[in-house]
Amino acid sequence: MKDAESKQRLNTRSIFLARVSFAAMLICILFFAPGAAYATAPYISSLSPSSGPVGTYVTINGTNFGAAGYQVTFNAAVATINSWSNTLIVAVVPTNATTGNVVVHASTGNSNGVLFTVLITPTLTFTAIPTKTYGVAPFTVSASSASSGAITYSVTSGPATISGSTVTITGAGTVVLGASQAAWGNYTAAYTSTSFTVNPATPALTFNAIPAQTYGVAPFPVSASSPSTGAITYSVTSGPATIPSGSWQVTITGVGTVVLGAAQVAAGNYTAATASTSFTVNPATPSLAFTPIPTKINGAAPFTVSASSASQGLVTYSVTSGSNAATISGSTVTIIGVGTVVLGASQAASGNYTAATASTSFTVIPAPQALHTCW
Asked: Where are the domains of the chain?
């Protein structure tokens, strides 16, 4: 009886071990034999490229991708599929992707994950550049972003040059600058541009100094100059002078203060400009001269004298010396003796002339003696 029970147990154990062995063999067949289910799971062997910004087309090389209609994810963000085959998929990095694993999701399961670095395009911006004026000193510009990539600057268009980050203005107009930043770390290369206006400069128009003049001076030229090449016209703003139209010759017409104006038209990099200057015209000293007086004979009748000049000033006369030989009243000279008579004339200032004096002399000789004949 006991032998029968022992035999029964042995048979039951043998059957159990046989079933376990069969199950183990079946598991090996299902999971490890060629063509088993695990071998049909997708497998990624490489990505090209392995980094890039949103919108990059990424080629996924591998095996067992199966037929199209499934998904590729970039760190769980679903990509747009450009093309799909059993060994090659082209996917586009989605807008919400971040750095992480790329996984192919196929009908047979999910693939291994391969790292893809999502590069960020930095927002590169210029520091604002205000309007400039031609002639301004060279100045520096700058652009910045979250990236630490090197930035180079250039003049895209307009009247300027740049060296490094220093801009030199060469004329008036609109200047467009460009900034290019190199890729760095997880940031792509970037580019931006900006523009600013360069206004024409107002030239410093100045007259050459004009010294004081004297009434009666000959016409003389005047001139004004500036960095501009614009044409200059001259005019008399006020005072006793004239300048003919289109001329730069000044003609004095009286005494006083003359104010001149100069107007320069806009040209090239310069606006229009004006300037003024003034100078004084002093009265002239007239040439007062006596009409010559011939030698007189003692006893001659009274006679008049005269002195004249360009001035209209009143002339008064006097006997400067020889009062024993003549006297004067007004302009009438009366002979009272013999000798040399010196007369003076004084003319008062008038109009464009100062006061003036003059002198002259004449001789009074004795009258001839009458001859008496003795008989």
From this structure: 37-119, 125-199, 206-282, 289-365
- Model confidence, pTM: 0.68
Is the Cα torsion angle 249, 251, 252, 253 positive or negative in sign? negative
CB 140 within 8 A of CB 165: yes
Confirm if 298 and 366 have CB atoms less than 8 A apart.
yes
According to CATH, the topology of domain 289-365 is Immunoglobulin-like (2.60.40)
pLDDT tens digits in sequence order for the chain, 375 residues long? 445 555 555 455 555 545 545 444 444 444 444 444 444 899 999 999 999 999 999 999 999 999 888 999 999 999 999 999 999 999 999 999 999 999 999 999 999 999 999 999 999 999 999 999 999 999 999 999 999 999 999 999 999 999 999 999 999 999 999 999 999 999 999 999 999 999 999 999 999 999 999 999 999 999 999 999 999 999 999 999 999 999 999 999 999 999 999 999 999 999 999 999 999 999 999 999 999 999 999 999 999 999 999 999 999 999 999 999 999 999 999 999 999 999 999 999 999 999 999 999 999 999 998 665 554
User: Contact 55/46 with Cβ under 8 angstroms?
Assistant: no
